[in-house]
Amino acid sequence: LSVPQKINDYITSLRPEPVCNKCIAKGVGLTNDAAHPAQITKALATTSDFTQESGTCSVCKDEKKVIHANGT
Length: 72
Ligand SMILES: [Zn+2]
Prior knowledge:
Number of strands: 3
Low-confidence stretches: none
Oligomer: single chain
Number of helices: 3
Helix content: 25-40%
Shape: globular
Structural class: alpha+beta
Largest sheet: 3 strands, antiparallel
Bound molecules: zinc ion
Mean pLDDT: 92
Distance between the termini: 24 Å
Order of helices and strands: HEHHEE
Strand order of the largest sheet: 1-3-2
Strand content: 15-25%
């Protein structure tokens, strides 16, 4: 799987819980800083499948920018 596809799957697996970029990176096993997920989540947020907002990450419980998959 490509990195964007892995991130897409990870966020969807947590639905409806929101998750932050840091936990996404950890969750999909990104070790390369160049593959920072911020750009990918930003791109996903432009689709109707995902919503990005300020909130509490369901994984690390930090208040920050999080993203969640829409739908049920
Ligand atoms: Zn987090």
